Amino acid sequence: MDISNKTAPSEFILLAFSELNEWHFFLSGLMIFTYLFTVMGNSLIIFLVSFESNLQTPMYIFLSNLSVLDICLTTTTIPQLIVNLISGRSVIAYTRCKIQLFFYVLFVGSEFLLLAVMAYDRYAAICNPLHYTMIMSQKLCGQLLSASWFISSLNSTIHTVFTFSLPFCRANKINYFYCDISPFLAISCGDISRSVNALLATSPIMGLAPAVCIIISYICIISTILKMNSSAAMRKAFSTCASHFIVIFLYCGSCLFSYTRPISSYSLNRDSIIALVNNMISPVLNPLIYTLRNKDVKAALQNFMMRKLFS
Q: What is the distance between the alpha carbons of residues 65 and 49, in angstroms, rounded to a whole number?
């Protein structure tokens, strides 16, 4: 084979939604609205947790970090997609694609680990309320958050290096709307075993372990709720857990589907829709389900507005 054929392309063409030309302006408008709502809703949560003293607890610190990740995750992909839909030119430069893949994998991994930490936090609060303050100390919170970011950064670095070390033989058409691992494995003309083995090796740490932690935590939580004497408390707890579990199921399910399945099962339309769930729906639902329905957050928002009105 000619060595020049292995030269990496200078840019990549993103094929997702290319068949929906007549829907581009509608889709871009919907995405702009959703993106702005995501940024504003999550920014409000970050602001309230940062400046309201009664929200300076482990649960709300974790929630504010989740909001940071939601903003970062959706900003990594959605603005680029909006520009591509409006301009009709779905092209991304090689270097920008590499950066996008690194940060996307970083934020996805960090959020997955953070959801496991949050599930454990709720387990400690509901199942061990008398020892909660000792279990979830400020020091432990900082360590858990730091570990989540460090592990995710290492994971993202490994996959970015391995992915962009592959030869593409001038193939530059990606069946996705952003740069991700699986589409590059699909267009590579070389041996992808190292990248596939890296995915298989990191999946237990980044996917299976957090999922098991979440499942076990919620099994214990539900078991504790069923033992409650107050039916009102049971309904409230079940309502909260159910809404939390919906977000976790959508996010974790789409992540596990994207990174733990054979490359041969890859499908443009189906996978692009699943990726949209990951990039748009979950970041929108998180502020609604986790905090904006929460009475403490509502009280903090009311107190802040009252202080501004009468200051």
A: 10
Q: Measured between alpha carbons, how far is 195 from 188 in angstroms, rounded to an integer?
A: 11
Buried b or exposed e, range 91-119, using 16+ CB within 10 angstroms: ebebeebbebbbbbbbbbbbbbbbbbbbb
Q: Is 91 helix (H, G, I), strand (E, B) or coil?
A: strand
Q: Which two tokens stand for residue 237?
A: 């707890």
State pLDDT tens for residues 25-47. Answer: 888 888 899 999 999 989 988 98
Q: Is 144 helix (H, G, I), strand (E, B) or coil?
A: helix
**Most distant CA atoms of the chain, gap in Å:** 75
Region 245-258 average pLDDT? 66
**Fold for domain 8-310?**
Rhopdopsin 7-helix transmembrane proteins (1.20.1070)
Instruction: Report pTM.
Output: 0.86
Domain range list for the chain: 8-310
57 sits in the region (left: phi over 0; alpha: psi -120 to 50; else beta) called beta
